[in-house]
Amino acid sequence: MADPKHLDQITERVERLLLRHEELQRTNGLLMEQVQSLQTERDSLKSRLMAARARIDALLDRLPPAATAEPNPDVRKER
């Protein structure tokens, strides 16, 4: 049979590895929740950006053609 001292060392090491594994699983779960939250936030921001772009495009379409083709004479260019 194996030396009881050696078995105790192996048992202790296995127990530490199991605890570390549980800690890593909990940490991984928390990180997965953060990733999901950030993905949801990113998707929301993308949606808001697309809506804002659509509103800007609609406003640009409403501008008269002369306003987009010629510079405004009231605006002075400073150099």
Q: How are the SSEs placed, and which strands pair?
A:
Blueprint: H1 4-62, H2 65-69
Summarize the structure in words.
81% of the residues lie in helices and 0% in strands. It contains 2 helices and no strands.
Classification by helices and strands: mainly alpha
Q: Uncertain segments of ≥5 residues (pLDDT<50)?
A: none
- Give Rg in angstroms: 32 Å
Kindly state the number of beta strands: 0
Total number of helices = 2
Instruction: Give the overall shape, derived from the CA principal axes.
Output: rod-shaped
List the secondary-structure elements in sequence, H or E: HH
Q: What's the main sheet like? A: none
Mean pLDDT: 89
Tell me the strand percentage band.
under 5%
- Report how far apart the termini are: 91 Å
Helicity level: over 70%
